[in-house]
Specification:
mainly alpha; 2 strands; binds farnesyl diphosphate; binds magnesium ion
């Protein structure tokens, strides 16, 4: 298996992002500098670059790698306002450091940068799917907010919401990279299918990990639960222990989350058999993602995508097993 080292390519993407987010307004520039300090895993630009390998790499592939990361960062800046989150990527969140209004403006500014850059794309009309995903992101969020504090939220509703809020960006990352590189249509479709399923797996793993560590005051966990958003591990646990979970939620609403309540929640998740069901769902999306990759030629980019998918599933399952062990 020959995997690729994308560090040089990502450096070029990061230079692009910095240039794109330059602002003539000193306060906005200060916020952008802060946002750029907290570099995440940059999975979405990696997906664009890897998908581009199935055609002929060119400047437009790099452009999409840059704007997808800016779009993602904009959604996180806004998300932290909505979730009232104090940290992001190991740093104080924009809304906490600069205030909620400035965070809304910062996200708006970043979206304006995405549009500004996108207008340089030749044949922009062929990329309608990219901008439609922005609507899907909002619909996923709306679906989630419609079920806040709903103890009867279903697995199907959860899956529809994460398809919008997370999976859609991975799907368009892969499709835009392949299309910009003029990859054959069948490869573009296989990559988009891969991205969609990888995105589902990614969010389910993220939600499993959120419950696997205990709450500590310096490292907020289970923020979704605190905010009444019930993700997959909890949805399965609710099917067995609704009344106990309702009690913990009431206590959290009145007194806030603490180690005792997070321990009780973890215990209910473990005892309910939820983790096994979450693992089963993860394995389903893992298989779908791998099946999509099997339709592609075996080049180092395919090996890398396989490796990323393997890593995601195996690190999540081993960390969850270690953290839930009694
Ligand atoms: C993180 O989820 C947030 C998202 C995946 C998407 C948020 C999207 C919006 C706020 C809509 C904005 C739309 C555009 C087009 C900018 P999370 O809260 O589950 O994860 P976290 O733990 O990282 O906060
Ligand atoms: Mg959030």
């Amino acid at each position: 298996m020959a995997t690729m080292d994308l560090s040089k390519e990502l450096e070029l993407v990061n230079q692009r992002i910095t240039t794109s987010l330059a602002s003539e307004d000193a306060r906005m520039q200060e916020i952008m500098d802060w946002v750029l300090l907290g570099r995440g895993k940059q999975l979405r630009p990696q997906m664009v670059l890897l998908s581009g390998q199935f055609g002929k790499m060119n400047d437009e592939v790099y452009l999409f790698a840059s704007i997808i990361e800016i779009l993602h960062m904009a959604s996180l800046v806004h998300d932290d306002v909505i979730d009232n989150s104090t940290t992001r990527r190991g740093l104080e969140s924009v809304q906490s450091k600069f205030g909620a209004s400035m965070a809304v403006y910062a996200g708006d500014f970043m979206l304006a940068c995405v549009i500004d850059d996108a207008l340089d794309v030749i044949g922009l009309r062929n990329y309608k799917f990219f901008f439609r995903a922005m609507k899907k992101l909002v619909y996923g969020e709306l679906g989630q907010v419609a079920r806040v504090h709903d103890l009867d939220v279903t697995v199907e509703q959860y899956l529809a919401n994460i398809e919008g809020k997370t999976s859609s960006l991975f799907e368009i990352a892969c499709r835009s990279g392949a299309k910009a590189a003029h990859a054959p249509a069948k490869y573009e479709d296989a990559l988009a299918d891969f991205g969609k399923n990888y995105g589902m797996l990614f969010q389910i793993c993220d939600d499993i990990l959120d419950f696997s560590k205990l709450y500590m005051s310096d490292k907020p966990r289970m923020l979704d639960f605190v905010n009444g958003i019930y993700s997959l591990p909890l949805i399965y646990a609710l099917q067995e222990h609704k009344e106990q979970i309702r009690q913990i939620q009431d206590d959290c609403d009145h007194y806030g989350m603490n180690t005792e309540r997070s321990t009780a929640l973890k215990e209910l998740i473990r005892a309910s058999g939820s983790l096994e069901k979450c693992e089963e769902k993860s394995r389903f999306y893992y298989r779908e993602a791998m099946t999509a990759l099997a339709k592609l030629p075996r080049i180092p980019a395919r090996d890398t995508l396989e490796e990323m998918t393997d890593q995601l599933l195996s690190t999540t399952l081993s960390s969850s097993a270690a953290n839930f062990a009694v």
